Amino acid sequence: MNKLKAAVTIIISLMLSQCQNEKITASLDTDDTFYVENDGAAMRVSVKGNTQSGKIMLIVHGGPGGSAFLYHTEKMQILLEPHNAVAYWDQRIASASQGTVNKETVTLPQFGDDLKSVIQVLKYRYGTATKIYLMSHSWGGMVATQFLTSGTNQELVSGWIFANAVHDWPRNDQNTIDMIIARGEQEIELGRNVAKWQEMIRYVQSLVFPLTVVQSKKLNDYAWEAMDLIEGFAPLNEDDIINENLISDRIPYTSLLCNLLNPVQRQLLREVNEKSFSDLLVNITVPLLVCSGRHDFVCPTATGLDLLTRIGSADKQSITFNNSGHNLEEQSAYINAFIEFIACH
Amino acid sequence: MRFKPKLLFIIFCSTLPVFAVTPKQIVTDSTFHRTPSLKAAYMGSIIYPGFKITSEWPTAVYMITKTGRNREKSYRKEKCLNISLSMYYHKGFHTNVFLLAERQWRRIGLSGWFTEFAPGIGISRTFLSGITYRVSEAGVVSQKPLAGFTYAVISIASGLGYDLTRSWNKPVRLYARISMLIFAPYNSYFYARPTLEIGLITKPSLFNKKHSVSNE
Hints:
A: alpha/beta, Rossmann fold, nine-stranded mixed beta sheet, 12 helices, 43% helix, 17% strand, globular, B: 216 residues, mainly beta, 3 helices, 11 strands, disordered C terminus
């Protein structure tokens, strides 16, 4: 019976260990993991790097259903984390986020509200004076724009990095179509992958707006295929990052997979398929850095430039990376641009 | 098309041996003790540790003898009802404690090797691996104690083991099995988790004493 008592005591102490108040101290090498619970979702946030800097770059990852972990690369650890802290936030129904999320809460405004809660918790933990910089990638652009165009939310952040992202779904689809036609015709003239480019051009020319979710998805698939066809350019495969870290405790792969396959993701895509924030961008006044990859067919350079012209910010700049596609392939160059932007703001 | 009925007849005849019934003798082992066994196991995956403690209650035991053309094959079949308490720890994700009721079928060969299959249902409670915060509508941040979620669990397990009773003269069996745990509703969907279980099965003296009293 004593052994049984000991076992029960161990289990209870394990459970209660998380009830203890965490001692939060800023350091040069922070490695914290905590959760933010909001409307049924418990979203994992990992903060790594230099919190003494008083500046945190908050990753608003792609997807929907992606993972913040995919941005926690070796270069991010070596180049950015010694300067500033990085908050890797897994959005609801993504990666390590868990819970009993109701389908009704899987909406873009809810994602914006989640982002607000995460920022409030970061400021609570690391000090209200802590400066937060959003780094939105791909789908994360929609989440960040939703957040920044709601109420006075933009007062909570000191800058916005828009890296290969989207703020206007139909406009981005149009930009992908234009890019496939333009680059496709160039490639056909050069006699490269003629049949494939012709197939893609035929398809995109047949599209009539508004696109259905299925059409938008197929367009997205072609955008990824197009990047593979560009000679002399090797797109970064996210699967490689996953495979390299397969035996680690940083990501629950089964949760990532189940969340990715969750049919609710489709419901979200239906909602955003015709969503545009273009008319509201004039209200955003936070400093902006737009980063684009020249070979990015998924979120083309034109999408970033459209944001740049419409936004109300006086402090805005744009960088195009000539040998990058959608997944920030020239990582060092991207990260150095992030560091410089954060240092200046 | 004219040859189709003939062809079907030939196919039918060729499959007849499959349906041929091997003479089988089933003897219910009335001497088996309805005393529970205790299963204790490491349960987890490559890097996420856990444990499982099971109380295994036999409901029926049969000795089955199959007579083939040239030889006779005998094995023992056990049906059990299992109640188990399990826990695994996944760093940075959650600690999960779950209670399972399993129906288990085990087939033990004369060599001592056995296979088992056990579907089960139960309930799970997770405890998030990290401090959990909530933000009120007024923007006030607070910590949520014992944050986690309750899920229904479905489990399907299959494994093999070896009965050491003869060689050791002690009621000990070693086993390993693979389970698929499915937790729901997880984000309006489900969460599947494969686990590996390695452990031993024994009859603790505590249960044996009780049994002997009840037999008197």
